[in-house]
Design brief:
Length: 136
């Protein structure tokens, strides 16, 4: 009866491979959502911001707690954000994206931030529920 353990091992290996592929696809999808979020903020696209930022959203920032209402407002005239060094991790219907956000102010000043954004999958779509931000 050696065939049965080999069969089970083969099924487990195929399942594990499929899970790893799905996790990679989800990680890539999370990075895409992160990029869409910043593009929407830069463009003042409130509809996209509302679709990405969950109703329960909060952010811990160097300047205090920021809620959803403040987050879905456009960045402001002349303010741009650029993301760098993005990394995503996924565990089922939860995931995080970490990286750096270079914020260029309308005055020309630059603020470099590091962040970790937490996402959940709701109704098949990734939404951000929390951010932790520190200033470099």
């Amino acid at each position: 009866m050696r065939i049965r353990p080999l069969l089970l091992l083969s099924i487990f290996a195929v399942s594990l491979g499929a899970h790893a592929a799905a996790s990679q696809e989800d990680a890539e999808a999370l990075v895409k959502v992160e990029q869409q979020w910043i593009a929407a903020a830069n463009a003042g696209d409130v509809a996209t911001l509302n679709a990405i930022v969950d109703e329960t959203y909060k952010a811990d920032t160097p300047r205090g707690i920021v809620d959803r209402a403040q987050t879905v407002m456009p960045s402001g005239s002349g303010v741009t954000q650029t993301l760098r060094n993005l990394s995503a991790k996924v565990d089922g219907d939860r995931g995080t994206v970490s990286g750096e956000n270079r914020v260029t102010l309308s005055s020309g000043g630059i603020v470099n931030l590091q962040f970790v954004d937490s996402f959940v999958r709701k109704d098949g779509k990734w939404v951000v529920v929390h951010s932790y931000v520190t200033e470099n």
